[in-house]
């Protein structure tokens, strides 16, 4: 159970189940992490990631409410993952949780924007190369 600020490492090929005693942010220090979160998000309907699988890179933060439960394991089979746990402190901690979630969602929006832009470029290139076929004969 995570109660106070601490650093931990999970070796490759291992997984660790984590339950939080207080709200805070889990931040990946090195390696990639695969986090599986149960449930449907924050128990009070507030901010926080929903249940399911999350893939985090070094520097990414993952906000968890009090009593949050996750399973964390290294994303790649040959590399351990190191993470920090920072409990929140009152309203300032809630702001930190929301800021971490907004930053993560903004990264997702940026990636989607780049993919959309790439699709538009491919569409435009296809239209430039397109040549109309022979006209159909009419009887």
Number of strands: 8
Percent of residues in helices: 25-40%
Low confidence ranges:
40-47
First-to-last CA distance: 80 Å
The total of helices stands at: 1
SSE string: EEEEEEEEH
Question: Reading side by side through the largest sheet, how are the strands ordered?
Answer: 1-8-3-6
* Percent in strands: 25-35%
What does this structure look like?
This protein is α+β, with helices and mostly antiparallel strands and 139 residues long. Helix content is 29%, strand content 31%. The chain has 1 helix and 8 strands. The chain has one helix spanning 90-129, and strands spanning 6-10, 16-19, 24-30, 33-37, 52-56, 61-64, 69-74, 81-87. The strands form 2 sheets. The chain has a 4-stranded antiparallel sheet with strand order 1-8-3-6. Strands 2-7-4-5 form a 4-stranded antiparallel sheet, with no helix packed on it. Residues 40-47 have low confidence and may be disordered.
